[in-house]
């Protein structure tokens, strides 16, 4: 049986190689940071895979470690289109065999339509430019390709009823978004449950949660807030997250009831009755 470890992302491999080359060169993190002109903490983040160096830092690393452009070239191959706190999560999504997601206020990114995503990006940017919106919408919607990829992960989606009622982008956008979710659930591509307002307080009410399971690695959890996110791999924290998900799921509607509620909400938006 394969060892129970956290799945390794490209960032993690980059960081592990940096740590190996640094120790081989006989340098501490502090000594390397002095040559790169950054803090030792930043070197620690690089080696842990939490951050990637910028191109200038990568070139300075190569000079300090005499690695002949190795880290600068490798950096070019790493996907940096996601914000730092989400980049590792986007990589792990592609390895997951099961994804369980909970959303308290908005449709999860994996399920968003282009119009819904565009409305969200427009809402929190004071001076949004069409080209920037186009880029970000493409980045977000391209993530959904994993749902039809080789692994085709099992996807559970638990939504607070507020997700269905808050009108994002106008009635037609909402109707289209909810019909997409309902169609995925009806086809068996998605296991859908809704937490109704009548459930009152529930275990996951404080924020967004994603649980991911893998073929040969330990599960992880990801919690997200405003402009921040935290990828959890500590077994006790992952277990607590799984328990909270199970508790919240026990307060949710059945799959049949949930599908009916989502279809009805889509119809309400279409006729302005939300």
Overall average residue pLDDT:
91
Beta fraction of the residues?
5-15%
Low-confidence stretches: none
Number of domains: 2
- Helix-and-strand structural type: alpha/beta
Strand segment tally: 6
Give the helix level as a range of percent.
40-55%
CATH overall fold name of the largest domain: Endonuclease, Chain A
- Main beta sheet, described? 6 strands, mixed
The run of helices and strands is HHHHHHEHHEHHEEEEHH
Please state the CA-atom Rg, rounded to the nearest Å.
Answer: 21 Å
- Strand order, sheet with most strands: 3-2-1-4-5-6
Count of helical regions: 12
CA distance, first residue to last residue: 51 Å
CATH architecture of the largest domain: 2-Layer Sandwich
CATH class term of the largest domain:
Alpha Beta
Gross geometry:
elongated
Organism: Streptomyces mutomycini
Protein name: Scr1 family TA system antitoxin-like transcriptional regulator
Pfam family, one: DUF5753
InterPro entries: Cro/C1-type_HTH, DUF5753, Lambda_DNA-bd_dom_sf
């Amino acid at each position: 049986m394969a060892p129970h470890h956290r799945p390794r992302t490209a960032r993690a491999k980059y960081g592990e190689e940096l740590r190996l080359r640094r120790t081989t060169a006989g340098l501490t993190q502090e000594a390397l940071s002095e040559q790169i002109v950054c803090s030792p903490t930043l070197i620690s983040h690089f080696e842990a895979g939490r951050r990637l160096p910028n191109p200038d830092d990568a070139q300075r690393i190569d000079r300090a470690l005499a690695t002949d452009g190795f880290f600068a070239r490798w950096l070019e191959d790493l996907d940096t289109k996601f914000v730092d706190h989400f980049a590792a999560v986007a990589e792990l999504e592609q390895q997951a065999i099961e994804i369980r997601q909970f959303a308290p206020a908005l449709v999860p990114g994996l399920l968003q339509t282009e119009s819904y995503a565009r409305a969200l990006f427009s809402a929190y940017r004071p001076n949004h430019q069409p080209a920037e919106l186009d880029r970000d919408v493409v980045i977000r919607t391209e993530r959904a390709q994993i749902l039809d990829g080789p692994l085709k992960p099992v996807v559970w989606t638990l939504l607070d009823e507020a997700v269905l009622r808050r009108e994002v982008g106008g009635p037609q956008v909402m109707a289209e978004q909810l019909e997409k979710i309902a169609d995925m659930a009806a086809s068996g591509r998605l296991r859908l449950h809704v937490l109704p307002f009548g459930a009152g307080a529930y275990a996951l009410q404080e924020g967004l949660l994603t649980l991911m399971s893998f073929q040969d690695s330990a599960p992880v959890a990801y919690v997200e807030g405003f402009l921040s996110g935290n990828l959890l791999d500590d077994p006790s924290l992952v277990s607590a997250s799984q328990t909270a998900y199970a508790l919240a799921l026990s307060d949710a509607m059945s799959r049949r009831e949930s599908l009916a509620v989502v279809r009805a909400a889509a119809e309400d938006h279409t006729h302005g009755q939300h």
